[in-house]
Amino acid sequence: MKKIFFITSLVISLTSFSQSASVRIGYIDMEYILEKAPDYAEAKMQLEQKASKWKEDIEIKKNEIKKLKESLDTERVLLTKELIEEREEGIAFQEKELFDYQEKRFGARGDLIIQKSILVKPIQDQVFTAIQDIAEQKRYDFILDKSSDLTILFADKRHDISDLVVRAIMRSERREQLSKKELKAQEAKEAKEDIQDENPALAERQKALDEKKAAREKLMEERKAAREKIIEERKKAALEKRKQLEAEKNGTVIEKDKTDEKEDK
Questions:
Q1: Residue ranges of the domains in the chain?
Q2: Residue among 138, 158, 155 at smallest CA distance from 200
Q3: CB of 47 within 8 A of CB of 116?
Q4: Cα–Cα–Cα angle for 66, 67, 70, nearest 5°?
Q5: What confidence score (pLDDT) does residue 93 get?
Q6: Of 157, 159, 154, whose CA–CA distance to 143 is shortest?
Q7: For residue 264, is pLDDT > 70?
Q8: What number of other Cβ atoms are within 10 A of residue 143's Cβ?
Q9: pLDDT at position 24
Q10: What value, to the nearest 5°, has the Cα angle with vertex 239 and ends 237 and 245?
Q11: Do residues 164 and 173 lie in contact, with contact meaning Cβ atoms separated by under 8 Å?
């Protein structure tokens, strides 16, 4: 009911907005953003390792209970009614313990859900801060979460600002590690990126310029390498000629290479 009320309210709000002014709507995919966050990926891996250990403990306990049941079925004809009831009570007690352990680890209020919430909370705070900054800078009226309970039947990719949020978080982390001089250069670079985001045509032109620059630099490097090779070959030839002249001046003869002798023969 709450979901329906929210969607209805949103539709009414959008309709009212559209009658007076253009409405700018963006959306994010929180799951995508979390997967891109380095801190979340590492913490998630540690949590998955814990969950894997819990599952192993559950499987071990299940196998123990299974063996107890099989043993009871095999020995039932040899046991008194009192012994059968006693062992059945023991099995029921262990099944209850197993159920409680499963609920404690994987239940609706279990350790897995709680630790996931603790894990996600700091990154969610970063995301919400980044979203507020982007909304103010880009003048968005609404920003929705595609991965939430709100059903979005269609969403054009151009309205997806998830990558902008990821970039804002990464920028924040990088700034903390930069000196004042590096920070100034980084801010200039970020400003340039933001301008390109607002103007796709400008971004394409910049991309073309960067590609031309890279091709030009590559050509210059190739020409430089070719010049250096020619200079090296000339130096080598001059050195050989000088050696030859010195040998002739001193009345000695430089022995020919064995290959050259064979060719002379």
A1: 20-170, 200-247
A2: 158
A3: yes
A4: 90
A5: 96
A6: 159
A7: no
A8: 19
A9: 84
A10: 105
A11: no
Which residue type does 3 have?
A: K
DSSP state of 1: -
Res. 209: pLDDT tops 90 = no
Per-residue pLDDT tens digits for 82-128:
999 999 999 999 999 999 999 999 999 999 999 888 888 888 888 88
Considering only the C-alpha atoms of the chain, give the largest distance between any 2 of them, rounded to a whole number of Å. 122
Structure token digits, residue 221: 């490097």
- Amino acid found at 225: A
What does the block give as tokens for 16?
């009212």
Percent of the chain residues topping a pLDDT of 90: 24
Which residues pair with residue 27 across a beta bridge?
144, 160
Label residues 202-222 b or e (16+ Cβ within 10 Å = b).
eeeeeeeeeeeeeeeeeeeee
Residue reference for tokens 């990154």: 123
Q: Tell me the H-state helices in the chain.
A: 2-20, 30-36, 38-75, 81-106, 111-138, 162-175, 180-198, 200-249, 258-264
pLDDT band at 14 (very low <50, low <70, confident <90, very high): low
Q: Is 210 within 8 Å of 198 (Cβ atoms)?
A: no
- Taking only the tens place, the pLDDT of each residue in 142-179 is 888 887 766 666 777 888 888 888 888 877 776 666 66
Amino acid identity for residue 12 in this structure? I
CB 254 within 8 A of CB 239: no
